[in-house]
Each structure stands twice: as C-alpha cells, then as structure tokens.
Design brief:
22% strand; alpha+beta; 38% helix; rod-shaped
C-alpha cells in the first residue's frame, strides 16, 4: 500500500491536468445562485477568471474564431517625411467562450453581462504596421452573453507605417494598410473573420469620423493573406484605407497667388518697350515671387519632389526668361537710338516681308512709312552695284560733282533716321515674337501640369 499511494497521487494529478487541458465545459458551469435583481456575485465567474490564461476551447484541435472590425474615428496626422499615418481607431472583437454558459430563465432573466476585460481571456490581436506599443486603457469591460459570446472593444491611437506618394501634392490620394494578426497563435489555433461587412465599416467610419482637417476618407477594402514565419502560418486580415487630401488650403495659399504673379508678369509685356519702367517692374515681381516661395515653404512637403515644386520652378523660370527678354529688347532699342549698326541685307528683307502690306489688301501709301521702302543702296555700309564714271563732259564736271556732294550730305541724316526706324521696328517685332513664344510655352506648361494632376 505504501508504494501504491505515490502511484495513485500521480494518476490523480494526471487526470486533473488532462481535464484542465481539455477544458471540459461542465467543470466551469456557472451557478445561478450568484444572480439576483441587485447584480451578480463575481464569485460565480471565478472559475472562468482563473482560466483566463488559457485559450477557451473544449478541444484544443479546434481553432478559435475571432471576428474583427474597426471604426476609423479620426485621421490625426500624415507625416510624409517619416512615412507615418497617425489615426484613432475603435477596434471591435467577438469570439465564443465555451466556459461561460448559463440559462437566463434560471438566472432571474439576465442574458447579458459586462465583465472586466482584464479578468477574461483576450485574443492577442495587433496591427502589423503599428510603430507604437499598445497602450490600452485599463478598466475596459467586455460584454458576455449567456451563450458565451464575448464582445470586446478598445480605443487605440495608432501610428502606422504608410507608403506615401506625394508626387501629386496637394491633389494626392494615399492608400494605407491596417493588417490585423495574432502575435502568438497560428492558424491552427486562431482564425480571423469579419464582424461587419466592409461597406458597413466604411459607412460607420464616415459617419463617426470627427476631424474635418486636411484628410478625408474615400473607402476601405480588405484582403485575407497568410503570413508565414518559418514553418508557422498566421491568419491575417488586411484592410486598405484610401484617404484623400483636401486641397483647398493649398490652392488658396499657393496656387492662386502664384498664378496671379505669373499673370501680372505676362501682362507687363503690354508696357511700352521704350518705357524705362518695364525692367524694374519685372525685377520687383521676381523678387516678390521669391519672397512668396520662402514664406510658403512650410506648407510644402519636406521630402520628395512633388509636382507643385516643379510648377513653382517653372513659374520662376518663366519670370526669369521674361526679364531676360526685356533686357534684350532694351539693349536693341538702346543700340538703335545711339549707334545703329548697318542692317544686314537678309534681315532687312525679312523685316520688309513681315511688315509690308499683303498684295490682297492694297493700302494707300503714307509718307510716314516710306522709310520701310528703302532700297539696299540707301542702307549705310552697302555699296552701289555699278558706278558710272567718265560719262560727264569736262567743263561741267566740277559743278556736277559739287551738286552731288551736297545731295549726298543731305541724304546721310535721312538715311540714318531710316536706319534707326528700321532697328526700332525690328526691336518691336522681336518683342512681339518673344511674347507670343512666352505665352505659348507658359500655356503648354501649365496645361501639362494640370493634366498630370488630374491623372
């Protein structure tokens, strides 16, 4: 008998451990004696509380099914530099606990209770993309039904990794993910499902969301991939959360002022080319645009090269080109009015071609425009094609030579004046041509940027 007692004690211990591991439901049947109209005695659930460290199943070969949903109640911050999304979620979980079971008709009609969540088994669900430690508030409760169905909700401030593409800023849309998975249990022990349909999660989030800031929720989709770590496979639910930036702030503070400055720069071409105020006016605009960019720099993303930065660089380049064009035209006018060089024959022919009236539209000749009809022989630096010599009679040679010299002396100032007029007209023609090229390039560039923003 002395040798039999250790054997019996060992058998009894093995039987007890076997019952605990199998988790037979009758071991934790809840006694309704602790239920009354004033409340429930916590001692009635003490056996369940003692079992909270173990997964609540009757047969450990059967995985626990945990249904998950969430409500996105706020989009707090999107950090483009660190590629982080900060949001506030309400996470809802539901599962069955077979060790919680009572008959409501025997327990004064009570069919649902709230218990402290810290006294119950809770699934170790976490968000894979989260960069913060789970800081769940203490004292949360869970709803438990008479059939053992448990509902648990908890609020979470989640800072998660999100692959942000800011090229289309401020008209960008981002697609971030929330992947829910178990940290400890493989798919043999825990399976994940949806407590609500995806459209219900989306509609609830849109109705509950509190912030009316920079971002708005577009939609939510889900996939159910598997995560393999070595030989272990974990069940997952991945939610794709599509959000869009509200561009009103940036349109009013960035695009509209920039557009106004570029438009004023284009209109400044209508100032007279001979005016001394065009170049200083354009320099003032260019300086003001640089100050504007410095002041609005805080609104632009720090990392990456968004399309709006290309747009600002393009506007700045257009203003610089506009100023250089003004400097060039001013130089031509100064050269024409001080010391005009001889005009090349090809340039004179080109000028006559683009400034002379068309044959289909005859006009009355005007004395003021007769300078445009100068023949090449009247231009300084161009010689007569043929010189007639030896045709004069000797007695009158001196008199005719003197008369010719006097005519030549009178024609030189007039020819000089005509040359100045030609160079001035050429300057005006170049001013008009460069202005049209400027407008064409500006319109095509802005149109290209708008098309890229809309794609």
């Amino acid at each position: 008998m002395e040798g039999g007692w250790p054997l019996m004690r060992g058998l009894f211990l093995c039987l007890t451990v076997s019952l605990l591991l199998q988790g037979r439901g009758d071991t934790f049947t809840i006694n309704c004696s602790g239920f009354d109209q004033d409340g429930v005695d916590p001692a009635a659930f003490q056996a369940v509380f003692d079992r909270k460290a173990f997964r609540p199943v009757i047969n450990y070969s059967i995985p626990t099914k945990v249904n998950i949903s969430f409500t996105l109640s706020a989009i707090l911050e999107v950090d483009a530099q660190l590629q982080l999304l900060t949001s506030f979620l309400w996470i809802d979980m539901m599962w069955d606990n077979p060790f919680i079971n009572w008959k409501p008709e025997e327990c004064v009609g009570i069919s649902k209770l709230t218990l402290l969540a810290e006294n119950l088994w809770l699934p170790d669900i976490f968000i894979v993309e989260s960069m913060d430690v789970d800081q769940t508030s203490p004292g949360l409760t869970a709803y438990v039904s008479s059939g053992g169905r448990t509902y648990y909700s908890k609020p979470m401030r989640v800072t998660s990794i999100c692959n942000l593409d800011i090229f289309y800023f401020p008209f960008d849309q981002q697609n971030c993910t929330f992947t829910f998975s178990s940290f400890l249990y493989t798919e043999d022990s825990m399976l994940l499902g949806l407590e609500k349909e995806v459209w219900e999660i989306t509609d609830t989030s849109r109705n509950v969301i509190q912030t009316q800031g920079e971002w708005e929720l577009l939609g939510i989709n889900k996939v159910t991939p598997k995560m393999s770590v070595g030989s272990k496979v974990y069940d997952q639910i991945m939610f794709y959360v599509a959000i869009r930036r509200r561009p009103t702030l940036y349109v009013i503070n960035l695009l509209v002022p920039s557009g106004f400055l570029v438009a004023i720069d284009a209109l400044s071409f209508y100032l007279p080319a001979e005016s001394e105020n065009r170049a200083p006016f354009k320099m003032t605009l260019l300086l003001g645009y640089n100050v504007f960019l410095l002041m609005m720099n805080d609104l632009l993303p720090i990392s990456g090269t968004p399309l709006i930065s290309v747009y600002f660089a393009l506007c700045l380049s257009l203003m610089v080109v506009s100023l250089l064009e003004t400097v060039f035209i001013t130089y031509l006018l100064h050269l024409a009015t001080t010391k005009p060089p001889p005009m090349p024959q090809w340039l004179h022919s080109l000028l006559l071609h683009y400034t002379s009236p068309r044959k289909c539209c005859p006009t009355v000749p005007q004395k003021e425009n007769k300078g445009l009809g100068l023949t090449p022989t009247h231009l300084p630096g161009l010689k007569e094609p043929v010189e007639l010599v030896g045709k004069m009679s000797s007695p009158k040679e001196a008199e005719l030579n003197g008369h010719t010299e006097s005519i030549s002396t009178q024609q030189e100032p007039e020819a000089q004046k005509h040359l100045v007029d030609l160079w001035v007209q050429f300057s005006h023609m170049m001013d008009t041509l460069l202005f049209r090229i400027y407008l064409l390039f500006m319109a095509s560039s802005i149109f290209t940027v708008i098309v890229l923003w809309n794609t």
